[in-house]
Structures are given as C-alpha cells and as structure tokens.
Design a protein that fits this description.
It is a single chain. By secondary structure, the protein is α+β, with helices and mostly antiparallel strands. The protein has a domain of 131 residues: OmpA-like domain (60s Ribosomal Protein L30, Chain: A, 2-Layer Sandwich). The chain is built from five helices and six strands; from the N terminus they run ββααβαβαβαβ. The strands form two sheets. It has a four-stranded mixed β-sheet with strand order 3-6-4-5. Strands 1-2 form a two-stranded antiparallel sheet. A hairpin with a 4-residue loop joins strand 1 and strand 2. The longest helix has 24 residues.
Length: 192
C-alpha cells in the first residue's frame, strides 16, 4: 500500500514502512545533534547578533504586577514577562535551533526550573511563503525543536506546550527577506 505526501513543489509516493523507519532515524539524529549542540555551549564564543531584534510591538503575556500582590506572585509575573519577551529565530525552511541561542535556552530553562508554577507555550511561526498546511507543519517542528532543547536542559515536559501558528501571526508584514526573517521564529508565552 502506498500513500501520497504533498509538498509545495512536488507529489511523491511514500512507503508507510519506510516512512516510520525514516522518522525513527530522524528522531535519533535530532536527539544526538541536540545533545551535541548543548555540549558545545561551554566551548562557544560570544554569539554574534544575527537575529532581528524584537520589535516594539512585542506583547508580554504576563499581566503587570499589582502593588497588592504578595512577593511570590510578583516574582512569578516578572519571570513570566521575562520568558515571554524572548524569541528564537530560524533559517528559511529549517527547524534546527542555531547554537547562538544556547545561552537564551539555558536562561529560559533556569527560569522555568526556578519557578515551578510557571508553564510555557512555545508558538512556532513561519514566513508567508508556502502553503498553510506546510507552514503549520514547519511551525510545529520549530516549536518541538525548542521544546526538546528545554527538556534536555531539565524542564519537565508536562510544563511545556508546543503549538504552531504557521504564517497566521507575522511580526512584520512585507514581501522582503528583512520581514520574512522576523517571522521565522518560536515565541515563548509564559503562563503562571
């Protein structure tokens, strides 16, 4: 029995048995590559700032602390705001987390481990190129790649949700690379 898989550029037949084996091999390679990348963090030099800076329209998920909140609640809200102000950017048609984000991932993992009442949603995004279905799948792969990195760094898997928004939530809206590069990202959205 053969199934057909649609890609933006071609239609090809896929053997379900071979597909399962390919997925297993890919998962092993991704796991090994992720561990290797995390081991290199200690050897890495200061990362270059290649990713686009967060634009001023970034919204924080956590509400502002009220003067009447107790210390723990204020700290949770501050940690949620700090988590939610970060994004990880990706290359075109790629879901590999760049090594330049290892420090950010370590900081996010430490915050999540320190504040056990804090949960995070990882929102995978893509640029406007490609079909909606393809972009939803790519956004999910990006969110899952970041989730796996956080789990490797010690964050309990149950506290991380990986979702895809595809091309539905662009940060920048223009048909140029400068905008597309801002839209290929995973946003952190913290929930106390």
């Amino acid at each position: 029995m053969r199934a057909f898989c649609l890609y933006p550029t071609a239609v090809r037949a896929i053997d379900p048995c071979k597909l399962k084996k390919d997925i297993e091999v890919t998962n092993r390679l991704l796991g090994t590559a992720g561990l290797f990348a995390l081991c290199l963090v200690g050897c890495a030099s200061t990362p270059k700032e290649e990713a686009p800076a967060n634009t001023s329209n970034t919204q924080l998920s956590a509400p502002a602390a009220n003067p009447g909140d107790d210390l723990e609640t204020r700290q949770l809200k501050e940690a949620a705001a700090k988590l939610s102000s970060s994004s990880i950017y990706f290359d075109y048609d790629n879901f590999s987390v760049k090594t330049e984000y290892n420090t950010l991932l370590q900081q996010q993992a430490e915050l999540l481990k320190r504040y056990s009442k804090l949960n995070v949603s990882l929102e995978g995004n893509t640029d406007e190129r490609g079909s909606s279905e393809y972009n939803l799948a790519l956004g999910q792969k990006r969110a899952e790649a970041v989730r796996k990195a956080l789990v490797i760094l010690g964050v309990p898997e149950a506290r991380i949700e990986a979702v895809s928004l595809g091309k539905e939530k662009p940060k920048a809206d223009c048909p140029e690379e400068k905008c597309w590069s801002q839209n290929r990202r995973v946003d952190f959205s913290a929930k106390p």
